[in-house]
């Protein structure tokens, strides 16, 4: 299915919500919703009935990263966990957007309490919120160059630069726990409202249907592929111990003696497995040493035979080395000729 052409729907509710919390950034927020800039805008908004209760705006200036510019939640819907659940859902969608997308950056500004006093770094709720989602602080020098956001070399006070890496580790640790449908069900539970839907507008995920649920088929397919990509092999489990019994849910109390016996049995099984493994390793090591010793002995024997043959050839004054027997012993050729002449003389005398 080809992507539908980007249309310009009504974002009035989202814009009003974002401007309510970021009054001084009104022009920048409105600039993101100009039709010429919609090709790089990614807007995720949560609606309860017909009311927008939360909105997140990300801009994709480069294909390798996105900039999370604004996130806002209505005051009466805060402190319910809705923002954290929504952000985990959005990070899950970011994994589906593009294989080239690697990072999400943001600038988090500290806030003031009800009395107008700035929170300390350790107590700042905005810093704790982003760090709990897997964002980690980076130096300002590592923040990407985005002319419309921050000039190169600028350092902001009462603010931090954060980065979220779209890698396997962060997916498993912060995103994998809930699917899109499970996240939507959790949002209904947190808001205590059944009529909740998500509005998605993204160049990479956008089709004519922006209201979820129901989920578009291409999103369902991408999520299945994502689950398969990060699927783990089951961890092998130890066989049940001899003392383990099938207990009903009503009788789960275990006596201390039975627990101690089970622990001793498990320790004994582990020690037995360890000893068997060590024995196999020692046997293979001894066999390798034996083969090495036999090869060395054979090589030394061949070398000794060759050295004796060479010595015999030198003693015979360059005669044929074949005069030396197989054990390297020298055959005295002169003595053999003398004995042959004596036998011939004796034979003549007898005749």
- SS field, number of helical segments: 9
Could you give me the name of the CATH homologous superfamily of the largest domain? Gcn5-related N-acetyltransferase (GNAT)
Percentage of residues in strands? 15-25%
Low-confidence stretches: 1-6
Principal-axis shape equals elongated
Cα-to-Cα separation, first versus last residue: 120 Å
Average residue-wise pLDDT? 81
CATH architecture of the largest domain: 3-Layer(aba) Sandwich
Helix-strand topology string: HHEEEHEHEEHHEEHHH
Largest sheet: 8 strands, mixed
Secondary structural class:
alpha+beta
Number of domains: 2
CATH classification, class level of the largest domain: Alpha Beta
Assembly of the depicted chains: single chain
Q: Would you count the extended β strands for me? A: 8
Share of helix, binned: 40-55%
Radius of gyration in whole Å, from Cα?
Answer: 41 Å
CATH fold label of the largest domain: Aminopeptidase
As laid out across the biggest beta sheet, the strand order is 5-6-4-3-2-1-7-8
Task: Describe the protein in words.
The protein is built from 9 helices and 8 strands. With about 350 residues, it is an alpha+beta fold. It has 2 domains: about 10-230, Gcn5-related N-acetyltransferase (GNAT) (Aminopeptidase, 3-Layer(aba) Sandwich), CATH 3.40.630.30; about 300-340, no CATH class. The chain has an 8-stranded mixed β-sheet with strand order 5-6-4-3-2-1-7-8. Helix 3 (about 80-95) packs antiparallel against helix 6 (about 180-190). The longest helix is centred in the C-terminal third of the chain and has 60 residues, at about 255-315. The radius of gyration is 41 Å and the shape is elongated. Residues about 1-5 have low confidence and may be disordered.
